[in-house]
């Protein structure tokens, strides 16, 4: 693990990081780790919490794609549950808030299990809107959750792609604590 | 896949041929623990399954209380043939599930003569003290706050392993450097043990009970306070009252 107290520099995009990795024969020496860590941190800060790190601990050579598989299931879950909520909220004049609430509860659970911090946070607010039968609030929360999970999905796809490229360039992915 | 014993109804002669439909049975491994995981969330099932596998447990994951009962054969007491073939060392279940909650499942397990000795752990995303207390009172072994982490599962694994006595000359490497423990813990002074099981004191009419069999043997009284002494002494655990509460006898805290 590397500790450092200031992030003076960092790559602005994937290409920079990859370039750094390729420049050295020893694909990931300490500087390159630093570069990767910075990028990783900047990408994931705020979006993920330490549960994501916990999931990474469960990944090894035998299950190298464990995290990717779990988050992929999570995103499928998001899509399904958001669909359920949208349908329930669409029943104008006859919205079953407990049904919406139960979907929100499930989403909160799975987002918590993968470390999707922002999605989970939104679910808390969403649940409150359901409990108080606040229709506008629910609709707003639904929109936000939809945006948020898609944004996270894009970021993680970038991250996994970056990791893959690093590995293919002969480097190792350091264990990063969020 | 099976280790010796595990369920009180499992006869010794059955042990060598234990298998559960569809799952391969590698040679008996005393160290292997079979866990039944119950959670309606697919994501959580995948995670808990991986957590358990990483700690060397065999896992069967089901998505509801009903399926769990079905798997155990509890809902069909007539199927004793099924019961004989099952061996479950631990049941870990989510609390909030549609249909049958984890609490209801816990009750049904504790009502079953075949499975009431199997430790049941409840998981929940909500840290509600009354909920925790209710589960512990009903006989739950432990209560884990979600999201479940590797350290939580390692702790469970630890007390499962340490609960059993190494017998039959089967040398088992315990996770910590601890002396072999008997279920009626020697260092416990609180009350005389209901029955003492040690390698040499087994019934002359039956072979010495194997490790996990001792834990769930009908000879023992249901989980009593003696056991808590063992359960709480895992060095890896950093118990916080919020995350985990156990049934404890007053003197053992």
Topology:
The complex is a heterodimer of chains A (178) and B (253).
Chain A lengths: L13 H10 L6 H15 L5 H8 L8 H24 L7 H18 L2 H15 L3 H34 L10
Chain B lengths: L11 H4 L17 E6 L3 H13 L2 E6 L2 H8 L7 H6 L4 E5 L7 H10 L8 E5 L4 H10 L3 E4 L4 H14 L47 H5 L9 H7 L22
Parallel strand pairs in B: 1-2, 1-3, 3-4, 4-5
Helix pairs in contact in B: 3-5
Pfam family, one (chain B): Response_reg
Protein name (chain B): Response regulatory domain-containing protein
Subcellular location (chain B): Nucleus
User: What overall form of chain B do the CA principal axes indicate?
Assistant: globular
Assign the CATH architecture of one domain in chain B: 3-Layer(aba) Sandwich
Low-confidence stretches of chain B: 1-28, 164-206, 208-253
SSE string of chain B: HEHEHHEHEHEHHH
**What's the end-to-end separation of chain B, in Å?**
36 Å
Please describe the biggest sheet of chain A, giving its number of strands, its sense, and whether it closes into a barrel. Answer: none
Number of helices of chain B: 9
Number of DSSP strands of chain B?
Answer: 5
CATH superfamily of one domain in chain B: Response regulator
Which two chains have the most extensive interface, and how many residues on each? A-B, 22 and 18 residues
Could you say what the CATH architecture of one domain in chain A is?
Up-down Bundle
CATH class type of one domain in chain B: Alpha Beta
Regarding CATH, which class of one domain in chain A? Mainly Alpha
Average pLDDT for all residues of chain B: 67
Function (chain A): Functions as a two-component phosphorelay mediators between cytokinin sensor histidine kinases and response regulators (B-type ARRs). Plays an important role in propagating cytokinin signal transduction.
GO molecular function, one term (chain A): protein histidine kinase binding
Pfam families (chain A): Hpt
GO biological process, one term (chain A): cytokinin-activated signaling pathway
């Amino acid at each position: 693990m590397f500790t450092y107290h200031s992030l003076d520099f960092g790559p602005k995009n994937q290409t920079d990081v990859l370039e750094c990795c390729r420049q050295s024969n020893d694909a990931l020496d300490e500087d390159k780790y630093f570069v990767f860590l910075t990028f990783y941190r900047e990408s994931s800060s705020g979006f993920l919490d330490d549960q994501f790190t916990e999931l990474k601990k469960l990944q090894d050579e035998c299950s190298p794609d464990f995290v990717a598989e779990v988050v992929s299931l999570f995103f499928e879950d998001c899509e399904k549950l958001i669909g359920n909520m949208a349908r329930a909220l669409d029943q104008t004049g006859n919205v079953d808030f407990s049904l919406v609430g139960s979907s929100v509860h499930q989403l909160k659970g799975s987002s918590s299990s993968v470390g999707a911090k922002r999605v989970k946070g939104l679910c808390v607010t969403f649940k409150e809107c359901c409990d108080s039968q606040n229709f506008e609030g629910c609709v707003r929360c639904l929109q936000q959750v939809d945006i948020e999970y898609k944004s996270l999905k894009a970021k993680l796809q970038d991250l996994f792609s970056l990791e893959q490229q690093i590995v293919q360039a002969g480097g190792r992915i350091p264990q990063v604590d969020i | 896949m099976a280790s010796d014993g595990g369920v009180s109804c499992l006869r010794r002669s059955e042990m060598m041929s234990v298998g559960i439909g569809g799952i391969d049975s590698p040679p008996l491994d005393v160290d292997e623990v079979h866990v039944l995981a119950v959670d309606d969330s697919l994501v959580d099932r995948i995670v808990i399954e991986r957590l358990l596998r990483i700690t060397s447990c065999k896992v069967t994951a089901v998505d509801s209380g009903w399926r769990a009962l079905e798997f155990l054969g509890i809902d069909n007491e007539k199927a004793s043939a099924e019961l004989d073939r099952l061996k479950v060392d631990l049941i870990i279940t989510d609390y909030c599930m549609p249909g049958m909650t984890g609490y209801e499942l816990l009750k049904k397990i504790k009502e079953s003569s075949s499975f009431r000795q199997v430790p049941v752990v409840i998981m929940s995303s909500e840290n509600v003290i009354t909920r925790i207390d209710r589960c512990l009172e009903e006989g739950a072994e432990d209560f884990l706050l979600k999201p479940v982490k590797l350290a939580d599962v390692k702790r469970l694994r630890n007390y499962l392993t340490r609960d059993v006595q190494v017998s039959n000359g089967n040398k088992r490497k315990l996770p910590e450097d601890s002396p072999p423990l008997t279920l009626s813990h020697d260092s416990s002074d609180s009350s005389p043990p209901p029955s003492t099981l040690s390698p040499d004191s087994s019934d002359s009419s039956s072979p010495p009970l194997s490790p996990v069999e001792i834990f769930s043997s009908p000879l023992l009284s249901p989980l009593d306070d003696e056991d808590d002494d063992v359960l709480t002494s895992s060095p890896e655990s950093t118990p916080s009252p919020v995350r985990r509460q156990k049934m404890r006898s007053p003197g053992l805290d």
